[in-house]
Amino acid sequence: RQVLERVLPELDATGRTLSVNLSTQGLEDAGLLDWVEEQLRRHGAGRLLLELAEYGAEAHVDALRRWMDRLAPFGVEFGLDHYGRGFSSFRYLRGLKAHWLKIDGSFVRDLERQPDNQFYLQILCEIAHGLDMRVVAESVETEAVWRLLPGLGLDGGQGFWLGRPE
Question: pTM of the entire structure?
Answer without folding.
Answer: 0.87
